[in-house]
Amino acid sequence: MLSRTPPMGWNSWNTFGSRINEQLIRDMADFFVKEGLKDAGYEYIIIDDCWALPRRVDGRLVPDPEKFPSGMKALSDYIHSKGLKFGMYSCAGTRTCAGQPGSYDYEYTDAETFAEWGVDYLKYDYCYLPTTADGKLCYKRMGMALRATGREILFSACNWGENDCGKWMRSVGAHMWRSTGDIVDNWNSIKSLTMQQLPKINEGAMGSFNDMDMLVCGMYGKGNAALGGCTDEEYKTHFTIWALLNSPLIIGCDVRNMSEETRKILLDKDVIAINQDPECRQPYLASSSQHDPENQKLVFIKPMAENEYAIGFFNFTDEKSSVQLNLCDVGLAASSGYSFKLYDVWAKEDAGVFKDWIAPTLEKHACVLYRARLVKD
Ligand code: GLA
Fold it and tell me: pLDDT category, 245, cuts 50, 70, 90?
Protein backbone atom coordinates (compact mmCIF):
# COMPACT_ATOMS: atom_id res chain seq x y z
CA MET A 1 0.00 0.00 0.00
CA LEU A 2 1.33 3.43 -0.97
CA SER A 3 1.75 5.97 1.82
CA ARG A 4 0.20 3.97 4.65
CA THR A 5 1.89 6.50 6.96
CA PRO A 6 2.54 10.19 6.08
CA PRO A 7 4.88 10.57 3.07
CA MET A 8 8.35 11.99 3.77
CA GLY A 9 10.71 13.72 1.39
CA TRP A 10 12.07 16.99 0.01
CA ASN A 11 10.54 19.48 -2.44
CA SER A 12 12.38 22.15 -4.43
CA TRP A 13 9.85 25.00 -4.11
CA ASN A 14 10.41 26.57 -0.70
CA THR A 15 14.07 27.28 -1.23
CA PHE A 16 14.69 27.21 -4.97
CA GLY A 17 11.45 28.26 -6.69
CA SER A 18 12.22 28.41 -10.42
CA ARG A 19 15.99 28.06 -9.88
CA ILE A 20 16.09 24.30 -10.36
CA ASN A 21 18.18 22.02 -12.55
CA GLU A 22 19.19 18.39 -12.74
CA GLN A 23 22.48 18.84 -10.90
CA LEU A 24 20.68 20.35 -7.92
CA ILE A 25 18.22 17.47 -7.81
CA ARG A 26 21.03 14.93 -8.07
CA ASP A 27 22.87 16.70 -5.27
CA MET A 28 19.79 16.46 -3.11
CA ALA A 29 19.61 12.72 -3.71
CA ASP A 30 23.29 12.39 -2.78
CA PHE A 31 22.81 14.44 0.38
CA PHE A 32 19.75 12.42 1.37
CA VAL A 33 22.00 9.40 1.56
CA LYS A 34 25.07 11.16 2.97
CA GLU A 35 23.30 13.15 5.69
CA GLY A 36 21.19 10.23 6.91
CA LEU A 37 17.87 11.61 5.64
CA LYS A 38 17.18 8.44 3.72
CA ASP A 39 17.91 6.30 6.79
CA ALA A 40 15.56 8.49 8.82
CA GLY A 41 12.71 7.68 6.40
CA TYR A 42 12.73 10.59 3.92
CA GLU A 43 12.33 9.02 0.49
CA TYR A 44 10.75 11.33 -2.11
CA ILE A 45 12.81 13.91 -4.02
CA ILE A 46 10.23 16.20 -5.62
CA ILE A 47 10.66 18.75 -8.39
CA ASP A 48 8.03 21.47 -8.04
CA ASP A 49 6.91 24.07 -10.63
CA CYS A 50 9.12 25.55 -13.39
CA TRP A 51 10.68 22.42 -14.87
CA ALA A 52 8.93 22.46 -18.28
CA LEU A 53 9.19 24.31 -21.55
CA PRO A 54 6.51 27.01 -21.93
CA ARG A 55 4.79 25.07 -24.75
CA ARG A 56 3.91 21.42 -25.27
CA VAL A 57 5.61 19.58 -28.12
CA ASP A 58 3.31 17.18 -30.01
CA GLY A 59 0.88 17.50 -27.14
CA ARG A 60 3.43 16.39 -24.54
CA LEU A 61 5.07 18.20 -21.65
CA VAL A 62 8.78 18.64 -22.26
CA PRO A 63 11.46 19.41 -19.66
CA ASP A 64 13.40 22.62 -20.20
CA PRO A 65 16.63 21.33 -21.84
CA GLU A 66 18.69 24.08 -20.25
CA LYS A 67 17.68 22.98 -16.77
CA PHE A 68 17.34 19.25 -17.41
CA PRO A 69 19.61 18.41 -20.38
CA SER A 70 19.65 14.67 -19.65
CA GLY A 71 15.86 14.47 -19.45
CA MET A 72 13.59 13.23 -16.70
CA LYS A 73 14.04 9.50 -17.23
CA ALA A 74 17.78 9.77 -16.62
CA LEU A 75 17.17 11.86 -13.51
CA SER A 76 14.60 9.44 -12.23
CA ASP A 77 16.99 6.52 -12.85
CA TYR A 78 19.63 8.36 -10.83
CA ILE A 79 17.27 8.96 -7.92
CA HIS A 80 16.13 5.34 -8.01
CA SER A 81 19.75 4.17 -8.04
CA LYS A 82 20.11 5.82 -4.63
CA GLY A 83 17.14 3.85 -3.30
CA LEU A 84 14.97 6.98 -3.35
CA LYS A 85 11.74 7.92 -5.14
CA PHE A 86 11.10 10.62 -7.72
CA GLY A 87 8.36 13.25 -7.51
CA MET A 88 7.15 15.76 -10.09
CA TYR A 89 4.60 18.54 -10.34
CA SER A 90 1.73 19.57 -12.60
CA CYS A 91 -1.49 21.50 -12.29
CA ALA A 92 -5.22 20.86 -12.76
CA GLY A 93 -5.66 24.12 -14.69
CA THR A 94 -4.51 25.19 -18.13
CA ARG A 95 -1.29 26.59 -16.63
CA THR A 96 0.74 25.90 -13.51
CA CYS A 97 0.85 28.58 -10.84
CA ALA A 98 4.09 29.86 -12.36
CA GLY A 99 2.50 29.95 -15.83
CA GLN A 100 3.82 26.77 -17.44
CA PRO A 101 1.57 24.33 -19.30
CA GLY A 102 -0.99 22.68 -17.01
CA SER A 103 -2.62 19.27 -17.40
CA TYR A 104 -6.21 20.43 -17.96
CA ASP A 105 -7.62 18.23 -20.75
CA TYR A 106 -4.26 16.43 -21.01
CA GLU A 107 -4.60 14.37 -17.83
CA TYR A 108 -4.25 10.93 -19.42
CA THR A 109 -1.38 11.95 -21.72
CA ASP A 110 0.52 13.58 -18.86
CA ALA A 111 -0.04 10.67 -16.49
CA GLU A 112 1.41 8.39 -19.17
CA THR A 113 4.39 10.71 -19.63
CA PHE A 114 5.06 10.76 -15.88
CA ALA A 115 4.79 6.96 -15.71
CA GLU A 116 7.23 6.63 -18.64
CA TRP A 117 9.69 8.85 -16.79
CA GLY A 118 9.48 6.61 -13.72
CA VAL A 119 7.72 9.19 -11.57
CA ASP A 120 6.59 7.90 -8.15
CA TYR A 121 4.78 10.98 -6.83
CA LEU A 122 2.74 13.72 -8.50
CA LYS A 123 1.97 17.03 -6.81
CA TYR A 124 -1.11 18.44 -8.54
CA ASP A 125 -1.79 22.14 -8.15
CA TYR A 126 -4.93 24.25 -8.71
CA CYS A 127 -4.11 27.45 -10.61
CA TYR A 128 -5.63 28.61 -13.91
CA LEU A 129 -8.73 26.45 -13.73
CA PRO A 130 -11.14 27.51 -16.50
CA THR A 131 -14.09 29.25 -14.84
CA THR A 132 -16.41 26.67 -16.39
CA ALA A 133 -14.40 23.73 -15.03
CA ASP A 134 -15.42 21.60 -12.08
CA GLY A 135 -12.40 21.40 -9.76
CA LYS A 136 -13.50 18.15 -8.22
CA LEU A 137 -13.83 16.53 -11.64
CA CYS A 138 -10.30 17.66 -12.53
CA TYR A 139 -8.91 15.77 -9.52
CA LYS A 140 -11.08 12.76 -10.39
CA ARG A 141 -9.62 12.77 -13.87
CA MET A 142 -6.01 12.89 -12.80
CA GLY A 143 -6.68 10.36 -10.01
CA MET A 144 -8.05 7.93 -12.58
CA ALA A 145 -5.39 8.76 -15.19
CA LEU A 146 -2.61 7.94 -12.70
CA ARG A 147 -4.20 4.63 -11.82
CA ALA A 148 -4.69 3.83 -15.52
CA THR A 149 -0.91 3.90 -16.04
CA GLY A 150 -0.53 0.79 -13.90
CA ARG A 151 2.40 2.45 -12.08
CA GLU A 152 2.14 3.18 -8.36
CA ILE A 153 2.20 6.96 -8.29
CA LEU A 154 1.45 8.81 -5.08
CA PHE A 155 -1.18 11.46 -5.80
CA SER A 156 -0.45 14.63 -3.85
CA ALA A 157 -3.35 17.04 -4.40
CA CYS A 158 -2.75 20.73 -3.87
CA ASN A 159 -6.00 22.72 -4.00
CA TRP A 160 -5.19 24.53 -0.73
CA GLY A 161 -8.15 23.04 1.17
CA GLU A 162 -10.68 24.61 -1.20
CA ASN A 163 -14.11 23.10 -2.01
CA ASP A 164 -14.07 21.27 1.31
CA CYS A 165 -11.55 18.93 -0.27
CA GLY A 166 -10.90 16.89 2.88
CA LYS A 167 -14.40 15.45 2.41
CA TRP A 168 -13.74 13.98 -1.06
CA MET A 169 -10.03 13.89 -1.99
CA ARG A 170 -9.56 10.43 -0.52
CA SER A 171 -12.42 9.12 -2.65
CA VAL A 172 -10.87 10.40 -5.86
CA GLY A 173 -7.62 8.58 -5.15
CA ALA A 174 -5.44 11.24 -3.50
CA HIS A 175 -2.94 10.03 -0.88
CA MET A 176 -2.48 13.50 0.57
CA TRP A 177 -4.01 16.90 -0.02
CA ARG A 178 -3.08 20.41 0.97
CA SER A 179 -5.57 21.40 3.66
CA THR A 180 -4.51 25.07 3.73
CA GLY A 181 -2.79 27.82 1.72
CA ASP A 182 0.93 28.23 1.09
CA ILE A 183 3.41 28.30 3.95
CA VAL A 184 6.08 30.99 4.21
CA ASP A 185 9.12 30.98 6.43
CA ASN A 186 7.93 32.87 9.50
CA TRP A 187 6.20 32.19 12.80
CA ASN A 188 2.88 33.80 11.85
CA SER A 189 2.53 31.43 8.94
CA ILE A 190 3.17 28.38 11.13
CA LYS A 191 0.68 29.61 13.69
CA SER A 192 -1.96 30.49 11.12
CA LEU A 193 -1.68 27.14 9.27
CA THR A 194 -2.02 25.31 12.59
CA MET A 195 -5.14 27.29 13.54
CA GLN A 196 -6.71 26.67 10.13
CA GLN A 197 -5.99 22.99 10.57
CA LEU A 198 -7.97 22.61 13.80
CA PRO A 199 -11.42 21.95 12.25
CA LYS A 200 -9.89 19.59 9.67
CA ILE A 201 -7.74 17.33 11.81
CA ASN A 202 -10.07 14.38 11.50
CA GLU A 203 -10.19 14.48 7.71
CA GLY A 204 -6.87 12.64 7.53
CA ALA A 205 -6.65 8.89 7.96
CA MET A 206 -4.34 5.96 7.31
CA GLY A 207 -3.17 6.13 3.68
CA SER A 208 -4.52 9.65 3.04
CA PHE A 209 -3.30 12.72 4.84
CA ASN A 210 -3.98 16.39 5.42
CA ASP A 211 -0.91 18.12 4.02
CA MET A 212 -0.11 21.22 6.07
CA ASP A 213 2.43 22.18 3.36
CA MET A 214 6.15 21.76 3.09
CA LEU A 215 8.40 22.37 6.07
CA VAL A 216 10.28 25.63 6.42
CA CYS A 217 12.62 24.28 9.13
CA GLY A 218 16.18 25.37 8.49
CA MET A 219 15.44 28.09 5.92
CA TYR A 220 16.38 30.93 8.28
CA GLY A 221 14.82 33.54 6.03
CA LYS A 222 16.61 32.47 2.85
CA GLY A 223 15.04 31.21 -0.36
CA ASN A 224 11.87 31.41 -2.40
CA ALA A 225 9.31 31.06 0.41
CA ALA A 226 11.38 33.01 2.93
CA LEU A 227 9.65 35.85 4.67
CA GLY A 228 11.54 36.73 7.79
CA GLY A 229 12.65 33.33 9.04
CA CYS A 230 12.13 31.63 12.40
CA THR A 231 14.17 30.80 15.45
CA ASP A 232 15.35 27.24 16.04
CA GLU A 233 12.77 26.98 18.83
CA GLU A 234 10.02 27.92 16.37
CA TYR A 235 11.29 25.44 13.78
CA LYS A 236 11.22 22.75 16.46
CA THR A 237 7.62 23.64 17.33
CA HIS A 238 6.70 23.68 13.62
CA PHE A 239 8.19 20.22 13.07
CA THR A 240 6.52 18.87 16.21
CA ILE A 241 3.05 20.06 15.18
CA TRP A 242 3.39 18.73 11.63
CA ALA A 243 4.65 15.39 12.98
CA LEU A 244 1.99 15.05 15.67
CA LEU A 245 -0.90 16.05 13.38
CA ASN A 246 0.14 13.38 10.82
CA SER A 247 1.08 15.84 8.12
CA PRO A 248 3.47 14.60 5.42
CA LEU A 249 7.02 15.68 6.30
CA ILE A 250 8.34 17.29 3.13
CA ILE A 251 11.53 19.24 3.79
CA GLY A 252 11.87 22.62 2.08
CA CYS A 253 15.32 23.85 3.10
CA ASP A 254 18.60 23.33 1.28
CA VAL A 255 19.70 20.05 2.82
CA ARG A 256 23.23 20.55 1.49
CA ASN A 257 23.77 23.31 4.06
CA MET A 258 21.76 22.28 7.09
CA SER A 259 22.78 23.77 10.42
CA GLU A 260 23.49 21.37 13.27
CA GLU A 261 20.22 22.38 14.93
CA THR A 262 18.22 21.83 11.72
CA ARG A 263 19.75 18.41 11.33
CA LYS A 264 18.80 17.56 14.91
CA ILE A 265 15.21 18.65 14.33
CA LEU A 266 14.62 17.01 10.97
CA LEU A 267 16.39 13.78 11.89
CA ASP A 268 14.92 13.19 15.32
CA LYS A 269 13.97 9.53 15.09
CA ASP A 270 11.60 9.66 18.07
CA VAL A 271 9.56 12.55 16.68
CA ILE A 272 9.48 10.93 13.24
CA ALA A 273 8.31 7.68 14.86
CA ILE A 274 5.28 9.51 16.28
CA ASN A 275 4.45 10.84 12.79
CA GLN A 276 4.93 7.36 11.32
CA ASP A 277 3.06 5.47 14.03
CA PRO A 278 1.50 2.41 12.34
CA GLU A 279 -1.98 3.01 13.76
CA CYS A 280 -2.12 6.44 12.06
CA ARG A 281 -4.72 7.84 14.40
CA GLN A 282 -5.38 11.53 14.20
CA PRO A 283 -4.83 13.40 17.48
CA TYR A 284 -7.50 15.59 18.97
CA LEU A 285 -7.27 18.97 20.59
CA ALA A 286 -7.44 18.26 24.30
CA SER A 287 -6.92 21.64 25.92
CA SER A 288 -9.86 23.48 27.34
CA SER A 289 -11.00 26.59 25.50
CA GLN A 290 -12.71 27.71 28.71
CA HIS A 291 -9.37 28.99 30.04
CA ASP A 292 -7.90 29.79 26.65
CA PRO A 293 -10.64 31.11 24.38
CA GLU A 294 -8.28 32.02 21.56
CA ASN A 295 -6.61 28.61 21.44
CA GLN A 296 -3.19 30.05 22.15
CA LYS A 297 -2.19 27.16 24.38
CA LEU A 298 -2.76 23.96 22.52
CA VAL A 299 -2.53 20.40 23.75
CA PHE A 300 -3.01 17.49 21.35
CA ILE A 301 -3.20 13.84 22.31
CA LYS A 302 -2.82 10.99 19.86
CA PRO A 303 -3.36 7.32 20.71
CA MET A 304 -0.61 5.19 19.24
CA ALA A 305 0.31 1.57 18.70
CA GLU A 306 1.17 -0.59 21.73
CA ASN A 307 -1.23 1.39 23.91
CA GLU A 308 0.99 4.44 24.01
CA TYR A 309 0.00 8.08 23.56
CA ALA A 310 1.77 11.08 22.13
CA ILE A 311 0.91 14.32 23.95
CA GLY A 312 2.13 17.68 22.64
CA PHE A 313 1.93 20.99 24.54
CA PHE A 314 2.31 24.20 22.51
CA ASN A 315 2.65 27.76 23.71
CA PHE A 316 1.49 30.04 20.89
CA THR A 317 1.38 33.12 23.10
CA ASP A 318 4.17 35.67 22.90
CA GLU A 319 5.28 35.17 26.48
CA LYS A 320 6.50 32.40 28.71
CA SER A 321 3.46 30.54 29.93
CA SER A 322 2.22 27.34 31.47
CA VAL A 323 0.04 25.12 29.29
CA GLN A 324 -2.31 22.89 31.20
CA LEU A 325 -4.00 19.58 30.51
CA ASN A 326 -6.47 18.12 32.99
CA LEU A 327 -6.15 14.40 32.57
CA CYS A 328 -9.83 13.79 33.26
CA ASP A 329 -10.47 15.67 29.98
CA VAL A 330 -8.73 12.94 27.97
CA GLY A 331 -10.44 10.03 29.71
CA LEU A 332 -8.27 9.38 32.75
CA ALA A 333 -11.03 9.14 35.36
CA ALA A 334 -9.97 9.89 38.94
CA SER A 335 -11.28 6.48 39.95
CA SER A 336 -9.30 4.66 37.23
CA GLY A 337 -6.34 3.66 39.35
CA TYR A 338 -4.02 4.69 36.50
CA SER A 339 -1.53 7.48 35.92
CA PHE A 340 0.43 8.61 32.89
CA LYS A 341 4.17 7.90 32.87
CA LEU A 342 5.82 10.44 30.58
CA TYR A 343 8.93 10.39 28.43
CA ASP A 344 10.10 13.76 27.07
CA VAL A 345 10.76 13.02 23.40
CA TRP A 346 13.01 15.99 22.56
CA ALA A 347 14.92 16.01 25.87
CA LYS A 348 15.25 12.19 25.73
CA GLU A 349 14.48 11.67 29.40
CA ASP A 350 11.74 10.43 31.70
CA ALA A 351 9.51 13.27 32.85
CA GLY A 352 7.62 11.72 35.78
CA VAL A 353 4.26 10.14 36.58
CA PHE A 354 1.07 12.25 36.52
CA LYS A 355 -2.42 11.55 37.71
CA ASP A 356 -4.48 14.76 37.76
CA TRP A 357 -2.94 17.26 35.40
CA ILE A 358 0.18 18.08 33.44
CA ALA A 359 1.18 21.73 33.18
CA PRO A 360 4.61 22.38 31.69
CA THR A 361 5.90 25.95 31.59
CA LEU A 362 7.00 26.81 28.08
CA GLU A 363 8.93 29.68 26.56
CA LYS A 364 7.03 31.68 23.92
CA HIS A 365 6.39 29.64 20.74
CA ALA A 366 7.92 26.57 22.38
CA CYS A 367 6.57 23.08 22.86
CA VAL A 368 7.11 19.86 24.72
CA LEU A 369 6.28 16.46 23.30
CA TYR A 370 5.74 13.40 25.47
CA ARG A 371 5.29 9.73 24.84
CA ALA A 372 2.93 8.53 27.55
CA ARG A 373 2.04 5.14 28.93
CA LEU A 374 -0.65 4.23 31.46
CA VAL A 375 0.73 2.73 34.67
CA LYS A 376 -1.10 1.43 37.75
CA ASP A 377 -0.97 3.84 40.69
C1 GLA B 1 1.24 26.94 -5.53
C2 GLA B 1 1.48 25.80 -4.55
C3 GLA B 1 2.91 25.86 -4.05
C4 GLA B 1 3.88 25.78 -5.21
C5 GLA B 1 3.59 26.87 -6.23
C6 GLA B 1 4.37 26.70 -7.51
O7 GLA B 1 1.28 28.18 -4.90
O8 GLA B 1 0.57 25.85 -3.48
O9 GLA B 1 3.15 24.81 -3.13
O10 GLA B 1 3.77 24.50 -5.82
O11 GLA B 1 2.21 26.88 -6.57
O12 GLA B 1 4.09 27.67 -8.46
Answer: very high
